[in-house]
């Protein structure tokens, strides 16, 4: 049996062709048909319906356009879809939606009050949210801190909300669930390469070519590292810096202007001393071992107080004790007066005791000179008697 092609003239209004008619009967047209002109379908289409600029018009209290897949062969898609305009009940919402009829889920929905360019896809596939001229794969435009919210609802894993926001002040990552805490924030005034993560995983702060796991670089003399427990932190002793290695470790101090280098080193080989050395390969300038023994290559200078008087014993106004007074003090205190006690197993102030010993030594020389004068006088007296 041959197929017939039916042709409707322009301006013809067909009521009830695509939507349910008020009449109980339905008309079934077999074969291919074309309508040359515009079409209105729905219970509320009129005989003189204005179809200007409208190729197909659906007019009803509840307008729906359904795509019913009648496939019955196994392996073929069967899901039915529907274009839905507005809720059907009183007080419902104004919207346009694509609905999965089989699951009764709205996959896509546009609210009636949505602003212009709420969603725009250009001919390059770039998506604009709030703009008709997207400049990237996703371009979001807003008048006050446009952002992206990521929200997890899971009864087992828990609920969590993160939000990324960009404003005239900063780019911020906000933990909305944790009372809006902002763990990451980048000021709009931040310079280039403020934070850079290289292909090796090295992190540069001010450096796009980091040479270490953490590389801080500045060109204005402000490169620095500050570890701080601010005011209000609980008091107590804390480990603030820790260097851990499977062997020795060291810190380098490089004065590039002077061309000198110093190293603070935890020695690799036994006895695993602490070393201070310069860049000249002549051995460490100072070492400290686990027993507390200190060894230095050069001389030791101290700037401690010489409260015992030191060289003042030679001044005329210095209250120099007599030999008898000095002896009495030593016997009473069991130590040199200006040296002080020296505990057998306890620490002592090497600077103060060195100054005190110098003072006592100079007093002793004065006493020796005094005794020499006395002895000379006695010898002279004895010589005259002979």
Automatic annotation (TrEMBL):
Keywords: Signal
Signal peptide: 1-25
Stated name of the protein: Uncharacterized protein
